[in-house]
Amino acid sequence: MTSQAKAAQKGYEDDARKESMILEVFRQILKNPTATAGMIVFLLICLIAIFAPLVAPYSPTEMDLTSMYATPSMKHLLGCDEVGRDILSRLIYGARYSLSIGLIADIGSQVIGVLLGCLIGYAGGKVDMIAMRVVDVWLAIPSILLAVMISTILGSGYVNTIIAMLVSNIPGGIRSSRAMCLREREMDYLEAARSINCSRFRIMYIHMVPNIISPTIVGTTMGIGSTIMTVAGLAYIGLGIQPPTPEWGAMLSAGRNYIMQYPHMITSPGVAIAITVLALNMFGDGLRDALDPKMKN
After folding, report:
1. Closest CA to 258 of 136, 87, 9
2. What does the alpha-carbon distance between residue 18 and residue 12 come to, in Å, rounded to a whole number?
3. If DSSP states are collapsed to H, E and C, what string results for 35-56?
4. At CA 201, angle to CA 197 and CA 204, rounded to 5?
5. For residue 11, what pLDDT is reported?
6. Among 30, 86, 219, 274, which one has the highest count of C-beta atoms within 10 angstroms of its own C-beta?
């Protein structure tokens, strides 16, 4: 067999192995009713957000002054807000903003954290010492406080909120990735890679990263829910995304002045946030069990 044929066969075997691992993880998740329920609920919320123009009964910015403060009815299933906008439609469109910010900020921070954490952990020595002291100072500032500071400096808005959440989440990703890299650095397979003169880049990002990706995926899944709550908190205190943009936290902020007279205005976005975060945590727990060999039956 020629070298090209061997390389092609090895590539097919690697692809088949990856597909079998993905299928095995999926089967493990389906065996867990809690994880399956969380996955289905989260996927359903994502589909509703994607197809919001087809699902929402009204425009999220359409005002009907005759329906101001309307309570839930057949015409408006979740009622209307202070200017007569349909709350259900605003919730559906608001999922786009809340979910996209959570996904972009958390996935982006984990990618940056893994790249920097592997570099710091593999380099070791003075690079590791200096870099981790910077990260320690970074982590000394609570993430919510750092997000508030950045949002105050940059101002409110969709892009600025993503930047604030991205920057505040990066140090945690660096620390966790660096810890995993320190554990992997002395493994035999890396010694074998060094013995055949693999470059540092190849060792770090071709050999090492695939072995730390499983806990990173779990951490990302669990972190999305936390990011969604933080984004809602920023909007609630007047930072982040602001009305009339239909974001869940902004809806909470707008309805807090009417919580006693019209509780439906604040209940609906609060329940939407709670259900989304709960679904993500349920799915994340199941994914962690599926990816952990010790938890498999």
Report:
1. 87
2. 10
3. HHHHHHHHHHHHHHHHCHHHHC
4. 95
5. 43
6. 86
Higher pLDDT, 249 or 202: 249
Decide if pLDDT at 257 tops 70.
Answer: yes
Q: Is 47's pLDDT higher than 90?
A: yes
Which residues, in sequence order, are bridge partners of residue 23? none
Cβ pair 214, 114 in contact under 8 A:
no
Residue 189, both tokens: 């397979």
In whole angstroms, what is the distance from residue 120 CA to residue 131 CA? Answer: 7
Count CA within 13 A, CB hemisphere, residue 143. 21
Rounded to an integer, what distance in angstroms lies between the CA atom of residue 104 and that of residue 288? Answer: 21
Stated length of the chain: 297
Looking at the predicted structure, is the pLDDT value of residue 292 above 80? no
Q: Is 80 helix (H, G, I), strand (E, B) or coil?
A: strand
SS3 86: strand
Encoded tokens for 193: 């890679």
Cβ proximity of 69 and 122 under 8 Å = no
- 141-155: pLDDT as tens digits: 888 888 889 888 888
